[in-house]
Amino acid sequence: MTRVLVIGAGPGGLTAATRLRERGPDELEVVLVTRDATATHLAGTIAAALGERPAQDFVCAVAVDGIDCRAGEVSAVDGTGATVDGARLEADAVIAAPGLELAAVPPWTRAHAGWDPPAAAAAAVALDAVPGGALVIAVCGQPHRCPPAPYSLAMALADRHRRSGRFTKVCLVSPEPFPLMALGGEAPAFVLDGCAGAGVEFAARFEVDLDASEDGLLRARDGREMEYELAFLVPPHRRSSAMAALDGDGPLVAVDDRGESSAPGLFVVGDAADSGLPRAAGVAEAQGATAADAVLARLGLAAPCPPHAATPSCYVRLAGGGVSRIRVTYPSGPPPHGEPHVVIDGPSPDLAHGAEGERRRFLRLAGCA
User: Is residue 106 reached through a cis peptide bond, with omega within 30 degrees of 0 on the bond before it?
Assistant: First the structure.
């Protein structure tokens, strides 16, 4: 049998595996490998950090009909297979969607770190209980998953503390010169206006130096300092060690317009792919489908298809409980030649239902009821 190996159960990996199963012949074996056989809806990080929903509402066991779903740690990968739990698993092609890993941060008592629902849920009580002083949301590196999400968290926390009568100064620090710089259009001004309305201070070009910082004090590489009562750190993101040998700068892997990396037969999709597109579920899904089509065509199992257009979107929490959505399209083609077209929807209470719909759709894709 022909075997295609898919690594990772985020939106990119799940979409790729499903597309292979739907378009491939019955004799195609699709093997999906994840670290612990679970899938996590990362967009639930904000709700978990606010204590609105438990982390388990965004995590489920992967069980997709017609796909061999396995748990395992991938330590090496190329276009002909991967090393899983120390054993070689051969394949005719590989689609890797491992996401980006979080770097370690110092174990300070007045800071919480993480960028997924379980880590956010662990910080929820502390974020809610800050009696006053400075509450800092610190983006410690670029790129990171879901660029608007730290601003959503900061605005929601500032609104909550103000309503409770606490004099908490909420500040968001980021190495960017302004929010969502890569998107452009109306997005930066929209986020800045939202932060101003919520009373969130924005410290631009603040490149956190974790080695020079200490518990209760963040230091930037340019010498600036910021004291805090409590901090929530979005750690620097790094490339999976299994793909360390692939071409690309920093945490991102260089890929072509179909997602193929410098290793023939190895396609990389999702957050780890250097595509010039935002790190968002809509992008990962389009890349996963495109890579699956390219693999099927290369193996002679299906007719070639054009690349799938990415339509990323992200929900943004605003002061007062409002929800807006940032949608991006690329009418003149993807980067680096095409320019993004940004649309801001809302705020509208209906968009909160849209966010819940996205959660349910992801869990269904993973095989959850």
Answer: no
| 268-279 residue pLDDT tens | 999 999 999 999
Go through the domains of the chain in sequence order and give each one's CATH number.
2-35+72-100+239-298 (3.50.50.60), 102-237 (3.50.50.60)
**Packing angle between helix 187-198 and helix 149-163, nearest 10 degrees?**
20
pLDDT at 338: 86
Q: How many CB atoms lie within 10 A of CB 56?
A: 12
What is residue 369's predicted lDDT score, i.e. its pLDDT?
62
Q: How far is CA 177 from the centre of its chain?
A: 21
Write out the H or E segment, with its range, that includes residue 163.
Answer: helix 149-163
The pLDDT of residue 160: 94
pTM, 2 dp: 0.95
Average pLDDT over residues 206-222: 97
Degrees to nearest 5, angle at CA 306 with 305 and 311? 125
pLDDT, residue 55, reads: 97
CB 58 within 8 A of CB 48: yes
3-state secondary structure of 53: coil
| Number of CB atoms found within 10 A of residue 332's CB | 10
pLDDT mean across residues, the chain: 95
Q: Where are the alpha helices (DSSP H) in 164-279?
A: 187-198
- Environment class of 247 (CB within 10 Å of its CB; exposed 0-12, middle 13-18, buried 19+): exposed
At residue 13's C-alpha, the angle toward residues 116 and 268, to 5°, is 100
Q: What is the rounded CA–CA span in Å between residue 252 and residue 277?
A: 12
pLDDT of residue 218: 98
